[in-house]
Design goal:
Structural class: alpha+beta
Number of helices: 7
Strand order of the largest sheet: 4-5-6-9-8-7
Number of domains: 2
Order of helices and strands: HHHEEEHEHEEHEHEEE
CATH class of the largest domain: Alpha Beta
Shape: globular
CATH superfamily of the largest domain: Chorismate lyase-like
Radius of gyration: 20 Å
CATH architecture of the largest domain: 3-Layer(aba) Sandwich
Largest sheet: 6 strands, antiparallel
Strand content: 25-35%
Distance between the termini: 41 Å
CATH topology of the largest domain: Chorismate lyase
């Protein structure tokens, strides 16, 4: 399906997402409310069921709805206070825009941990790391730049990974169950190298997400993802601490 737009200028995916989020946040659809079936939403918005399914997947990932097998989709019960920033799959982000996804690994080098790695990644002196740089594309346009370190002490399998069929982040999500994560969000200006890779002007505003993840056996990865700042936003969902703490 093409990336059609509604009268508001939003893509139909964005309009459906915005409409449902508004109904949930405003209280029109309270916790426990069963949403219309996907086939009915698809008819009412004149879109494919796949488009509606992507919206529901995004809402479920944000913790706004709960999908129950054979029962339908329901507005989720409020959680204890939290800032929810999903460890998302970049391919899913691009697919949500109804654009073809691809990626290109620019470099993959094994090296020993340097002093800066020890500070930001909690690895030890002498630990072996895999340093990867790749660009993700939405259609023909660069979507983001990924700069990643993988601990080969925790994930030795990464040494043999080709990353041909799956990007490093996708591969790790499937390979290693993570038990803890930390996000850091920054606003930066594009360096000459970053500007060239993202095809944006030197010094342009960029949004950077830095993330560290750990498994039960140690640090897994440190990744720095740089997005062109004029076309990306970060959304975190919050819940009051006094309601149904779990």
């Amino acid at each position: 399906m093409t990336n059609r737009k509604s009268q508001t200028g939003l893509t139909l995916h964005q309009k459906i997402l915005s409409d449902i989020e508004h109904k949930i946040v405003s209280g029109d659809w309270p916790p426990g409310y069963r949403l219309p079936f996907e086939v009915d939403l698809a008819k009412s918005y004149d879109v494919s069921r796949m488009t509606v399914n992507k919206v529901m997947t995004q809402l479920a990932g944000a913790g706004l709805v709960e999908r129950r097998k054979k029962s339908g989709t329901f507005v989720a019960q409020p959680r204890a206070q939290s800032a929810i920033l999903e460890i998302s799959d970049i391919e899913v982000e691009v697919s949500a825009l109804d654009l073809p996804y691809s990626f290109s690994v620019l470099s993959s080098v094994e090296r020993a941990a340097a002093a800066a790695d020890i500070t930001r990644f909690e690895v030890s002196t002498g630990d072996n790391l895999l340093q990867i740089k790749c660009v993700h594309f939405a259609g023909t346009k660069p979507f983001c730049l990924e700069e990643r370190l993988i601990s080969l002490e925790t994930v030795p399998e990464a040494r043999q990974a080709s990353f041909e069929g799956a990007a490093p982040g996708q591969w790790l999500l499937k390979q290693v169950p993570w038990s803890a994560a930390e996000h850091k969000i920054l606003a930066v200006t594009a360096t000459p190298e970053t500007a060239g890779l993202l095809e944006i002007p030197k010094g342009a505003a960029c949004l950077v997400v830095e993330r560290r993840t750990w498994s039960e056996t140690g640090p897994v990865t440190f990744v720095r993802i740089t997005y062109p700042g004029d076309s990306h936003t970060i959304i975190a969902n919050f819940r009051p601490a006094s309601i149904n703490a779990t």
